[in-house]
Each structure stands twice: as C-alpha cells, then as structure tokens.
Design a protein that fits this description.
Chain lengths: 1020, 207
C-alpha cells in the first residue's frame, strides 16, 4: 500500500502543493449514497467501505502572494478485475473558503468494522482501535453537500485540521479586490466530469504527452498477466477517438492557413536605430552582406556589456520615436497596448474599438500579398540592461520604441497590422502583431512571465509567454460573439536562458523550470461568474493552463546555447565561405542545444529546422573582432533560436529560418522563422456531434459484461528474407467477431521482455475495433545500423511470438519469423577482415577466420575504391552529390553477396559513380568504430608535419592503417584530377567527420580544424 | 652525424609471386607458408642503415596482384620514389606481367623513379622457368636494377632493399610539407653525396 501522501502528490498537478494527506474511508452507512452519486450505472457497487485519501492541497498563485487551499477526497476506482491498487480519482474538492468547516469526533461504536473485516482488503491489516469521524461542511454558498469520513490517523488529522485553519484564515484576510483572477480556477481540471467523452475539453492535451507513443503510457502487462485493463481502455479509446477525429473529420474538412512570422532579437539594451524590415518582412531582394557597420556612430558610453547609455535613455524618454519615421505608425500608436505586469490577462475590447476606428477612418488601400504574414510574433531580450529595470516596474518607452520600429520595418504594409498583445518582464518582451482584418479571429488572450535569473526568481533571465485562441471563421456580427468554429490554441514563449559557455546545465535547468512555472492563470472577471452549480462551477475557462496545453507551441529567444568546438575552430569554420554548407553542418553537431535535445535534457519534443545561417552571436562594435566581425572575446554561437511543437490537429510547415546580418545595432543579429500553420475549419457543433457519435459506440465498453471477441488472421507471418535498411511489410487483420467494441494492445511475452522484437515495427500497436469491423495491423521489418551491428554477428534465423491482448478478453498469438541477411555495413573493420568470403556466405558467426589469419584490409572497402578508381575519377560532384537510393541498395547487395558490379551500359553514367561514392561514405560512416579511433583524435589534431602524421599510424591497428592509406591515396589521386581541381578542401571537409567520427558524448570535442589538417597531410 | 631519409616504395607484380612474403621477410624477418591474398594494399615501414650511418626509412606499399584490384595501382605508385617489380622464377608468365608493370611505371610514374626487377622463389630454382640471363638482359636493356631472392630462405632480400637505398637520390630536395611525396625527412645539405637518380642504373646488385 502506497503512502497516502505519495498518492496525493501523484494525482495532483505539479503546480500544486500537497500539505497533508491521510488515509480515510467512507462511513459504511452513508457510503452507498456517496458511491451511487459518483459511479451511477456501474454494476460494481461496493459492499465494503472503500479506501479514500483525504488531503489538503494548496496552490500559490503565480503572483507569489495568494495561497488558496482545497480539501480533496481521492477515492479508489471501482474495484474491477485487474485494477491496480494505487489507482485513485478525485471524488470531492472543497475550496477552503469563508463558509468551509471541518471537524472531528469520536463515535461511540469504534469497533464497527472489526466484526466484519472486508476480505482481501489490505486496509483491514492496519485496522486501528480508534476510529475518528471527520465531517466536512463545504459551506452554504457552495453547491456541495457535507460529507463524513472515518480515519484512524489522529496525528495526521490534527495536522490536516491545522492546515485547513491556516488556509481559511489566509483566505479570510483577502477580499475579492485583491486579485483579478478566479481564486479556485486551479481546481477545475480535477473536476472534469468523467462521464463526458474525452476530446470535448476546450483544453488541448499536453503536447508532451501526445509526443509519447500510446503504448508507453499503458499499464505494465505481459502475456497471461494483464495490467490495468480499465485504464488502458481509457487511454486506447481516447487515442482511437483522436485519430478518428483527425482522419475522418479534420482531414476531410476545409483548411484555413495562418502565416506566422516569428522573430527573436537580443537588442543589448539599445534603442532601435536601423531599419528592421529584413527581420520583420524577410526582405530577400536585398543581398545579405556578411558584415555591415552600424548605421550610426555609437556613443562610447554604450560600448561594453551591461552598460547603459544615459544619453540614449534620456533621449528615449523624451521622444519614444527615437528617430523612427512617425508617419507610418502614428495611427498605430493608439492601438498599442501593454499587458500590464500587475495582471496576467488583458481584456482587449478597448483596443478593438480603437483598431476598428482606425480602420474605418482610413481604410487601407494597401494591397495584401499572399506572402505577407498574418501574424508577427517578435521576441526581444535585453530590452533594458539598467539595474533599476530589475527592481522597478519597467517603463513602456522601450517597448513602444521597438514596436514602432517593427511597424516601420513593415513599411507601407504597416497600416494592415495592429498590435494584439504584448508581455514584458524586465528585458524580455513578447509582442504579437496581427493583420487588422484578422483581429476578431483571436480570443482568450492570456499572458504570463516567469523569472529564473538571480536567486532563481529575478527577471534578468526567464521568459514571457502569450497564449491565444485562433478561430478560423469567427462570427461576422460581433467581436464578442461565441466563435462558431473550433478554435486552435497557439502559445508563444520568449525566453532568455542562462549565459556563458559553461552554463549548459543551467540552461537546461532553466528550460525545465520555465516549462513548469510558465502557467497561464485564468482570464476572468468576477462579475461574470456563473452561479455555482455542481459540474459547471469550475469551467475550463477558469483553469490555469500549462504552455504545453496548446495545439501549437512556439519557443523563441536567446537560449544562449553555445558551440562546444574550440574557439579557433568555430571562427575558422564560419569564415570559409567556399565550404559554408558543409562547415555549418559540421558546426551543428557541436551545438549544445542539439546535444540537450539528443540527451533529452531540454527541448526534447520540440522541432527545430536545421540551421543554415551563420551564428547570430556575438558582434560588438569597438572591440577586437575577427574577419567576420565576431567579437574575439566570445566564441560565436547560435544563441538565438526558434523551435516549435504541434499536435496533429494542426499542420506546421516552416518556410524559413534565417539570421539578418544587415541589422547591426546590437551584439546579436536578429533571427526569424516563417511558418505556415494550417488548421481545420470545423464547426464547434459539428465537432461535438462527431465526438458524441463516436463516443456513443465506445463509451462504456469497460463496464459491459459481454466479453470482447476477435479473430486474428493470419497467426503465422513469415517475412522470409529481411535485410539492412530494407523494409518489408506484412499485414494481419484483427476482426471483431463479438458484440462489443474491443480495444487491443500488443504486450510482451514476459515481464522483462519487449513487446516486439527490435527488427519489427507494429502499427498500430494499440487499437480499437468495433463489432463487425476489422483493423489492419501492419508488421514492418526495420534493420537500422544499431540493430544490424548486433544481427550481423548473431544467428540469422529470427523468430518471435507476438502477443495481442484484448482488454478484458483473451490473448492472441502471432508467430513471426525471418531470415536475416548479413551485411558488411554496421560492422567493425576488424570483423570484416576475418570473413572467409562475402558476408552473405557466412553460415554462422562462428565461421569467421581466427585473428591471425585475417586479411590485410576489408574487401568491401577496397572493391568500392577500386571501382571508383576505374570509373569515377572524372565524375563531377563525386562525394558531394547524394547518390540514388536504389542504386546504392544494388551496390550494397553486390558487396554483401560478393557479386560483380554490373550496371551494363549505365556504368559510365555519373549517377552510378555518385551512388558508388555515397556508398563508400555510408559504409565508412556505418562502421562501429571509425577508421581513426576516437582515442587517437586528440593526438592527430596536434600533428604538425607529414612525417609526424605518418609516425602516428604506428599506433593504429594494421587494418585501420591499410584502409587509411588506401583511402587517402585515392583521395590524393582524385584531388589531382581535372574534375576535382580545387576540390581537395571539400574532400577533406567531407571525409573528416567520417574517418574521424566523433564520440558525441564527449563534452570537449577535438578540434575539427586539427583533424582536417591531419587528413590533409595525406591527401593534400 | 647520421642522416635520415624517407622514401616511398611500391611493390608490384602478378598475383602469388610473393610480394607480401618478400615484405614480411624484409620487415619482420618472418615467413608464412600460408598467406591470404592482399586486398588492395598493405602498408608497412622499415629502416635500412647504410655503411655511412645514413638511415633510409622505406614506406612500403605492398599492392595486391589480383586483377580485380588492378585499378588501384596508379594511386599507390603515384609519387613513389622506387618500385620493386616482382616475378616468380618458376612462372615465365609472371615475367611477362612484370614487364607490363614496368612499361606502365615508365609511362605513368614519376620519371625519376628507381625500379628494381626481382625474381623471387629462388628456393624453387629446380623448377626454374625464367633464366637469370633472360631477366638480366631485359633489366639492362630497360636500365633497371635486377636481383633474385627467396622470401622463404631470406636469400637476397635485404640486399635488394639496401641496393635500392644506395641508388636513391639522397640529395633530393626536401619534400613539400603536407604533400604525399616522400623525400628526406630532415633538411640540410648532405655532404656524403650518394649516387643520384639515373646513375649506375642497369648495374646488378650485390646478390
């Protein structure tokens, strides 16, 4: 039996604090009533008192001042077969308000249950002598009735009562004017009616949850040992409904597009002094220059980090325009609004008025281009570097100046736009600008800011965020009318994370902290509150929302992630414009953010389009800079980033990701990304009707007595031959031959086994099939590098039994078998040289030659080089242009079988040569250890002459030496051919990461430039 | 003061004439009755010390004789300072193959390359098909060094490499740093001037 406190903590959200939790149970006499209320319709009415947990939970509002408490009663789920013991739901939640009271008493009959202990209940083991009765009176103003429970935990109960007293006293000191929010909105998510179909909530599910495969969220189960079928059914059913909505409702319906341009700019405390059009409009007509000096001379006082310019400050206070052309924006200033720091929500009706006035007064005759963004989301950091900014509420002068500069950057298009919302925290500012004609498509705007800087709370670092609903076709009549189509929740986070190279872990921690603490408090006005009635008392609109409870989430800002390569490497890699593309690709592998994502330390579920632009940091005027203009004191880095994640309800396509070198006023360059967001236009009525219709068939399946029955066919699947990187698909049908809907899942054969052998993919791995219907489950073989390296040295015959478990039904078995075809890919060179012949002819892994009889070099590599020497030395673009996948597959097959390369007349075509080149690169890259073992990389990078480099070969295994010598001799030969004149550097850049593949877990990578030099000693 | 020079040496010749065995004897003084065919090429190094204490380090590129790797040869003999072309004295066809390699080297390789023709398997002289005279005459005509060896007994092996070392231009200009071209490892003027390339070619070596 788990501790009551742990269970309570498990059930409550991370934004809440469990103060006290004790074991309790219903009083038998009145329990029946209570149970009926909650579990009406269930045939499994309990006959024994059920274990409950009584807990005081408090929630501290984001303002850090207001704490509100609530007494929760968690109750055990209906005792059905297989239900795991620690499965609790919220039964009651009583806000600790004025009328609330809780009292205890000692009943006369203390031995009531000892006479008839409920069989099998672990609770009776702890049966105490003294039972205390707890009575909770929610108060007259609430829709709830008093309840009575029993407990034996006297100590715990005392603490619980004390805590209630404290929270009630705290509440009594407050008045409604103290806060502009619903004090108990945070309770709403716990009170969702369990009888309602899922997917009807207006709160989108947590994006992180959606990114996890369904089967990973199910209970632990294996063949013959079902897990918690009831909760599994709920999860599988919800997923099934979600897919049904996506496939049958969203996919068919009309689509609406929303073009969002997102920008991030660390302005280093400066006021705008340059045209921002390249950033806000993405002016591509202007050729980007590598480095353009600032337009105006900077005051010496503004140089250096963290210094404010008092002159600029004063000027700005007097003239917020600060040199910006006022004509384009004058009409806009009226509609500019700030979400004040005191409240997290702004009612924008006033803005709307003025915006409408502006439109009707001067109807814009500026034509719209399809390329104009519908929405501009601009994130600024270091808006104000003054120390006062940390301590006092921020002046709006800087916000206005930057907004005006943004509108000015829009040029003649500015009149089409208006500011919708903004949120500032010290130096961080997030501004949302939308097309005026779309103003009414946005609603329920919420904003929040969180500081994670000094002492973990200051706003020198942190984030500001805005969440809003986008409704494709709002009611044309009034701005405040209910939207008719289903809205899409969009969230934007502008963050500034911890600085400095070595603060990598702190940045990751900042991300985690912000993910947790960025919670949008509800948007309410107290007068509008509906009269309380059980069920609707807590409307979803009153619930605090996580940033992840969105359909699409965009995270932008100065995330401060750096590059781990040595400083000289980074500078030299970015400086070489001949090798720009390959060098940027190289740099991306040493990006701390990429590493954080790979190791799941931060941003793991986000998507970031691969960067192709130069690092946006750091350019300081007046200090020593390298040839590219980068500050010599700071290693260049991609600090400024834009990432996103989205549910399947929306389609997000990224159109661009760029930095803007022409805007030089700050030490960072602004970065922008353009997204095409596509949402389905589905009427709310239509949506709800569809969900209800789908729900009708599957709502109560876990309570139906009738057992589900399915037939699985075939029950024997033979894949025959399966091989590396070649997928083979077979289908099995799950046919429902029973009378009730059946949810199924594949489970492992045993508690420690995997559900599915590593060489197979099952899709879907969970599902639901209606009576009389059939679901096709595809089984696809997949052998990737990691798996091939294991299978190559194992037995070729593979067989496994898949177990398909039907919830509340029986297990079905599907036998799968395959013959693995070995490959020379994804092996080690030391193993390849022990092959007596082609790898495919190896019957058993024991048939390899003894080590002392191994050959001098792998045939497969030498065959490729030999072919390339015969046919490809004049091929344009060899190793630079990717090869055709089908040709590569053929070549791979010939290498594995030992068959002759036979491409007939096509042999001399360059596409064949390119495929051979690509195959060689892929083969080398797939080796379990690179040609130069990572342990030698540091020494290689230090070699200063050809002779030293040759000496170092003595420390390599013989096989590696022979491969190295032949490959470099080939590349040297190639570099002297006409077709490759001047390509030596490209060859060096391409082969270095392959021959010296990195150990990506190493925190301090070896200089890339040093490794390239080493290779150059052999092929230059 | 001793000087060290470094030279790239390539072995060419028909399959199974004993190139790898010759190198194994020279580098490790071993012999192996059973050897897998060379794949592509094997790379080894060995240093020879001459009477005047000059040391010559050979970077040896032992190439595959099999036809299927023939295309690789140019990348191995490119920039080689010397070549040992091996034939099997018990197989007359192997001399024909050696001649064709020599023609290719004369056409494609560095014009200053020092070439030695080497008849291997002297231990099997009873089954000889190629006479000393025939091979020697051909070598003289082409201006090559010539000798016979037995990798199995070791006879003549170190002599042929030492002779090559003596014939190499030990005054060659310092190699361009970073290039694959071999040359003296240390710069400086060599006062003990040795024979330069081209001189003394056609002489029989001391075996």
């Amino acid at each position: 039996m788990s501790d009551a406190f742990d269970i309570a903590q498990e059930i409550t959200r991370p934004t809440e604090d469990v103060k006290v939790a004790i074991d309790a149970r219903s009083v038998p006499r009145i329990a029946d009533e209570a149970e009926k209320e909650t579990w009406s319709g269930s045939d499994h009415e309990p006959t024994v008192p059920r274990r409950k947990i009584l807990a005081v939970v408090s929630h501290v509002h984001a303002d850090g001042k207001h704490e509100h408490g609530c007494v929760f009663v968690f109750t055990h789920k209906p005792p059905l077969v297989h239900t795991i013991p620690e499965d609790y739901v919220v039964e009651h939640a009583f806000p600790i308000i004025h009328g609330f009271s809780i009292s205890m008493s000692q009943p006369r009959q203390t031995t009531i249950d000892l006479s008839s202990p409920p069989a099998g209940s672990t609770f009776t083991l702890n049966q105490p002598r003294t039972e205390l009765t707890v009575t909770i009176d929610p108060g007259e103003d609430t829709p709830f009735s008093p309840i009575t429970l029993q407990t034996h935990d006297i100590q715990g109960l005392r603490r619980l009562l004390d805590e209630c007293k404290r929270l009630k006293e705290g509440f009594a000191t407050e008045t409604a004017d103290d806060y502009g929010f619903e004090p108990f909105g945070w309770v709403a998510p716990y009170m969702a009616d369990h009888a309602l179909p899922p997917l009807l909530s207006s709160i989108p599910p947590d994006l992180r949850k959606l990114k996890k495969p369904v089967h990973t969220r199910l209970s632990t189960a294996s063949a013959g040992m079902p897990g918690d079928d009831i909760s599994d059914v709920e999860i599988i059913r919800e997923e099934w409904m979600r897919r049904k909505v996506e496939d049958e409702l969203f996919a068919r319906g009309e689509k609406a597009g929303l073009k969002i341009r997102v920008g991030t700019f660390n302005v280093n405390g400066k006021f705008p002094s340059q045209d921002l059009s390249a950033w806000v409009r993405g002016d591509v007509a202007r050729p980007p220059a590598a480095f353009i000096p600032p337009l105006k001379e900077l005051s010496p006082l503004s140089l250096g980090e963290g210094q404010k310019n008092p002159i600029e400050e004063t000027l700005a206070a007097e003239d917020p325009g600060n040199g910006q052309p006022p004509d384009a924006t004058s009409s806009e200033t009226r509609s500019l609004s700030t979400v004040s720091d005191a409240t997290t929500y702004v009612n924008l009706s006033v803005d709307t008025q003025s915006a409408e006035t502006a439109v009707s007064d001067a109807p814009p005759d500026v034509p719209e281009d399809p390329s104009d963004p519908d929405m501009l989301v601009l994130g600024f950091q270091e808006l104000d570097l003054s120390t006062e900014a940390l301590l006092y509420s921020t002046k709006t002068a800087r916000e206005q100046a930057w907004c005006m500069a943004a509108f000015a950057g829009l040029g003649e298009k500015a009149v089409l736009y208006e500011k919708l919302a903004s949120k500032q925290l010290v130096g961080m500012l997030l501004v949302i600008i939308v097309k005026k004609r779309l103003r009414h498509n946005f609603s329920e705007i919420r904003a929040v800011s969180v500081g994670v800087g000094i002492m973990g709370i200051m706003g020198n670092k942190g984030a500001t965020a805005v969440r809003l609903l986008f409704t494709p076709t709002p009611s044309p009549s009034a701005a405040n009318a209910e939207p008719q189509t289903r809205p899409t929740a969009l969230t934007f986070v502008n963050a500034h994370l911890a600085a400095f190279d070595e603060m990598y872990e702190k940045r990751n921690a900042d991300f985690q902290e912000l993910s947790k603490r960025l919670v949008f408090e509800p948007a309410i006005s107290v007068e509008d509150q509906q009269p309380p009635s059980n069920g609707s008392w807590y409307s979803p609109a009153a619930a605090p929302l996580s940033i992840f409870e969105s359909d699409a989430l965009f995270w932008l800002g100065d995330l401060n992630y750096r590059l781990t390569l040595p400083d000289a490497d980074v500078r030299s890699l970015v400086a070489d414009d001949q090798l720009r593309e390959v060098n940027i690709r190289t740099l991306r592998r040493f990006d701390q953010l990429a590493s954080a994502r790979r190791t799941k330390k931060a941003f793991e579920d986000f998507v970031e389009q691969p960067i192709t632009h130069l690092p946006s940091y750091r350019f300081s005027a007046g200090v020593l800079a390298d040839g590219m203009g980068y500050d010599m004191k700071r290693k260049p880095a991609w600090t400024d980033r834009i990432l996103h994640m989205a549910s399947k309800a929306v389609t997000v396509k990224q159109r661009s990701y760029a930095s803007h070198a022409t805007i030089t006023m700050s030490d960072h360059r602004p970065v922008s990304a353009e997204f095409d967001v596509e949402v389905s236009v589905v009427g709310l009525d239509e949506y709800e009707a569809f969900v209800h219709r789908v729900w009708r068939d599957v709502s109560a399946i876990e309570y139906i007595e009738e057992r589900p029955r399915v037939r699985v066919e075939p029950t024997n699947v033979d894949f025959a031959k399966i091989s590396y990187k070649r997928e083979v698909t077979r289908t099995i049908a799950v046919v429902n031959i029973g009378k009730v809907p059946c949810s199924f899942r594949f489970v492992p054969q045993g508690p420690t086994a995997d559900t599915c052998p590593p060489w197979l993919r099952i899709h879907p791995i969970t599902g639901l099939v209606l009576p009389g219907e059939k679901v096709d489950v595809t089984l696809t073989t997949q052998v990737d590098e990691a798996l091939a390296s294991r299978l190559n040295v194992g037995q070729a015959h593979l067989e496994e039994t898949l177990v398909l478990h039907t919830a509340l039904g029986r297990d079905h078995f599907v036998a799968v078998s395959a013959e693995y075809e070995r490959t020379c890919f994804a092996t080690s060179m030391s193993w390849l040289v022990r092959l007596p012949g082609p790898v495919r002819e190896l019957q058993s892994p024991d048939d390899v030659l003894p080590e002392d009889r191994s050959v001098n070099a792998p045939r497969e590599i030498m065959r490729l080089v030999n072919w390339l020497m015969s046919n490809a030395t004049e091929t344009d673009g060899l190793f630079l242009t990717p090869g055709d996948e089908e040709l590569i597959r053929q070549i791979r097959e010939n290498l594995d079988t030992g068959g002759e390369f036979d491409f007939g007349a096509a042999e001399k075509e360059s596409k064949v040569a390119l495929a051979f080149g690509d195959t060689l690169l892929q083969l080398l890259d797939s080796l379990s250890e690179p040609v130069i073992p990572p342990a030698l990389h540091p020494r290689c990078a230090q070699m200063t002459s050809r002779d030293e480099a040759f000496e170092l070969l003595d420390d390599l295994p013989v096989v590696n030496v022979n491969v190295w010598i032949s490959l470099t001799a080939f590349l040297h030969f190639l570099g002297q051919q006409e077709a490759c004149k001047g390509r030596v550097e490209q060859l060096v850049a391409i082969f270095t990461p392959v021959l010296f593949r990195d150990d990506l877990t190493s925190p301090t990578p070896v200089s890339i430039i040093g490794r390239r030099n080493f290779l150059r000693y052999f092929i230059g | 003061m001793s000087k060290q020079f470094q030279f790239k040496l390539v072995l060419l010749g028909e399959s199974a004439v004993g190139k790898s065995s010759l190198v194994l004897r020279f580098v490790k003084d071993q012999f192996d009755d059973y050897r897998e065919s060379t794949i592509g090429a094997a790379f080894l190094t060995q240093t020879v010390t001459l009477e005047d204490q000059t040391t010559v380090k050979f970077e040896i590129w032992d190439t595959a004789g099999q036809e299927r790797y023939k295309s690789l040869a140019p990348m191995y003999y490119r920039n080689a300072n010397c070549a040992v072309v091996v034939y099997d004295i018990t197989q007359s066809t192997s001399l024909e193959k050696a001649k064709s390699w020599i023609r290719e080297l004369q056409r494609q390789a560095d014009p200053n390359i020092v070439i030695a023709l080497c008849g291997n398997k002297l231990d099997l002289a009873a089954r000889r098909q190629v006479s000393e005279e025939e091979a020697k005459k051909y070598a003289e005509e082409e201006g090559l060094m010539w000798g016979e060896t037995s990798a199995k007994t070791g006879e003549g092996v170190s002599d042929i490499f030492t002779s090559i070392a003596k014939k190499l231009p030990l005054t060659a200009p310092p190699s361009a740093r970073g290039g694959a071209r071999a040359g003296p490892a240390r710069t400086g003027v060599d006062l003990n001037k040795q024979a330069v390339a081209g001189q003394g070619q056609g002489e029989q070596c001391n075996c």
